[in-house]
Amino acid sequence: MDGLYLICVTSGSGLPVFTRSVGNVKQLPFPVIGSLNAVHMFAANHEAELKSTATEDARIVWKEFHDSLVLIAVHCGNGRVVDCELERLLDRTWAAMVLLYGLEELRQIRNVERFKREIKVCHPLIDTLLRRVELPVFSDVTGAVEGVLASEATALQNFLEAFVEAADTPYGCLLSHGRLVGATAKWWDLSATELVLLSLLGLSFSPCSCRDVPIYLPDKSPTVPHRLMTFKLMAHVEVWVICGPTPSLSQLEMEIARFWVAAVDTLHQVRQIHPRNFPASIDVDNNILGFILINAATHHSVTSVDVRREGKDSGELRGRREALREFYGSVWDSQMGGPVTEEASTDVKHTITDSYTVYSSHKCYAHICGNYQIFVLFSSKIPTYAMRNVCKKTLDAFVKDKSVMI
């Protein structure tokens, strides 16, 4: 079984801060951690930058941040993984640490032992990033936040705007099963990194009726803290706001019933869209098992591995997610340009708009049209020549349906 280590050490001194892991792997002994840091330091002392290396059964990637901390990713096993995937994990881990601890505190570590205790606040989110194949969403690899497409979203937007105004903040969103149903304009103005990390942060939370969490915005406000307040409206449905010092959690909690009681029936209807995640008004081909649809302009996506609500067991649905993840990673990182980020390079000599892969158990097809990217998992029964046409028709169905917006 493949395993993955994520190691954090201080720059220069190489003092270990934390090690997180996933998979059937043993705890790394201190001499191994020391050696991994030492080879990186050796290269730096000789004016060389060591980014990655590979052994017979492992791939290792290093990255230093702000001359303060070095993050090391070690992938063990025979599974396919590429350097850019591990580097993306390190970047997301650093951003997660900024989100929950603050950039200034990460730059200036005065007491390592205290820092090791305090940085534990980031462990649940980091562990969520490491559990890539187990996640019910794809946003950690696509760089786009996942949403639920619902015709009721427009009506719910009015309730959201009123509640956000009462919280005296422009930042708010409504979620169903951890996916965005609606958000304010300012929420959509957050960077792709911030949108994705906030959604993954929600997956790392333990269930509760409400919470008040201090956060930093890695791109918009990495040194000034804000408060993320979340409120459970019903099972699997929450409303979030990002506020300043006021109002208090208890004050806003008292307003929940006043603002949302009239929306209960509509919220229930939206909740029922899961796990399909898009309305019945959009019909898809019977050969489609799952898909990832991304709007690169808005960093918004919708995904599904149960398009017909077939009641498949969790093992089969997980297999579909893994197949889609593998296909996305193989064609996007190596052929079609890279993850959806503001920094993604557009300096290419030509653009690949279509790619497909055929397996014995399934088939996959990717198609890009303007800002839209669609990655489709098909059953093996579909004729290979038909996949492109079905992909284009599916994309058109989503884009042209005026009752939803992606």
Helical coverage, percent range: 25-40%
CATH fold annotation of the largest domain: Beta-Lactamase
Q: Which geometry do the CA atoms define?
A: globular
Low-confidence stretches: 339-346
Family: Belongs to the fuzzy family.
Subcellular location: Cytoplasm, Cytoskeleton
Pfam families: Fuz_longin_1, Fuz_longin_2, Fuz_longin_3
InterPro entries: FUZ/MON1/HPS1_longin_1, FUZ/MON1/HPS1_longin_2, FUZ/MON1/HPS1_longin_3, Fuzzy
What this model shows, in words?
- With 406 residues, this protein is α+β, with helices and mostly antiparallel strands.
- It is 36% helix and 27% strand.
- The protein has 3 domains: 3-130, Beta-Lactamase, CATH 3.30.450; 150-271, Beta-Lactamase; 288-400, 2-Layer Sandwich (Beta-Lactamase).
- The protein has helices at 30-45, 83-101, 103-107, 112-118, 123-130, 139-142, 153-166, 185-188, 192-204, 249-253, 256-260, 264-271, 314-336, 387-400, and strands at 3-10, 16-22, 52-54, 58-65, 69-76, 145-146, 171-176, 179-183, 210-217, 221-234, 237-243, 288-295, 300-304, 354-358, 362-369, 372-379.
- The strands form 3 sheets. It has a 6-stranded mixed beta sheet, sandwiched between helices. Strands 2-1-5-4-3 form a 5-stranded antiparallel beta sheet, with helices on both faces. Strands 8-7-11-10-9 form a 5-stranded antiparallel beta sheet.
- A hairpin with a 3-residue loop joins strand 3 and strand 4 (58-65).
- The two termini are 37 Å apart.
- Residues 287-401 form the FUZ/MON1/HPS1 third Longin domain.
